[in-house]
Amino acid sequence: MAKNWIVQGDPTSSGGRVLTGSPFTDIDGVPVARVTDQATCPQHKGAFPIIDGDATLIVDGQPVALHGSTLACGCKVLSAKQMRVFVDPGGGVGSGGGAGAGRAAAATAAGAAIAAATRFASANEPEADEAAEFDEALRFCSESGEPLAGVRYTLHFADGSTCSGIADGSGVSERICTGECTEIVRAELTPASESEACCALEGAFDQDQVEIELEGVQTNPVDVGHSVVEVRAKGHKRDLTPGEVEIAHRVFGDSVDYSTVKIHNHGYWMFFGFQDKHTAVTPNGQMYYPKPIYQDDFSLLPEDQALFIHEMAHVWQHQLGYAVRWNGLFVSSQGPAAYEYDIVPGTTLSDYNMEQQGDIISDYYMIVLLGDRVYARGSRGTPEQLQAVLSEFLLDPSSRSNLPGRRR
């Protein structure tokens, strides 16, 4: 049975959506999904990578994901957005494979298959009876330009009317068609679903809504059917305060470049809908605190210091070259168990996963340096145990051998 290639925006068996795809290979402008690309899963409350595909078809060094490919959570990705390119078990685009030169040949064959399928479809698609006289589409992005895939939107027009929809895998709205030039004055963005990401504090989930005031955005007769306006959801970010640098330096010393660390007063846009309002994440060397838990200075209160040092551990991991965002997808999928740790004689920091490391380091700061067990996150170690498990880290925090799985 032939299986369609998966593309960005395709659904999952649990009601989620494929978030990422190839930056170089697409079908009709929609990125092709590969093994390691990510999809949301409302059932398991997170974003998970695709873990299997067609090994005979390699795109950007990874097998192409197919209809029925599996996510790390166990759910499946389903083909719904394109029907043009597929793998036929009897041959077709799935007949090549191998490594080295075989991989290159497979990638070439894949690209040729897409091009041929696109040319064939374009030649056989009927043109619309009449085109809209005025239209526009909006691409919703984070402040750094990352697409807000699958976000729900409501657009408000100058005449008081509204329209709603769901952005595609590239963050692009449906085309807004009007009979005359119509100004779009505001966009409201709401995540399609919600879930816990990582580093959570206790508290109820509370879905975010982002409002963006628009200027100069309107349906127009220029480039009808093709024009797209980029709309960025902005937030506030700041440098570390002197107090924050001081307490972080007590733990990490000079192993971190504190001048490059930013603290944001909103959630991480790529986790929009998968980060509750009492959750902090640090996936890329910068900290993202939703407004309910954001502080202008995390060094003032002990409960804020405990969370801050945990997040600084992820900054430290990132700056030493550890793939925090990628590994976090696997580790945080374990839920609360990902943070639990026991200190066994002879173990070192590198024996623990990224979240356990964050809590161990935070607990060391709270219990050993501050003498405050009340606000410690894990509270599973005595001062002696924490000092022992961190002995190599404390001796040389700049050594990559302290990272998860890198024991000497």
TrEMBL record:
InterPro entries: PAAR_motif (IPR008727). Residues 1-21 are annotated as: Disordered. It comes from the Bacteria. This is PAAR domain-containing protein. The lineage of its organism: Bacteria, Pseudomonadati, Pseudomonadota, Gammaproteobacteria, Lysobacterales.
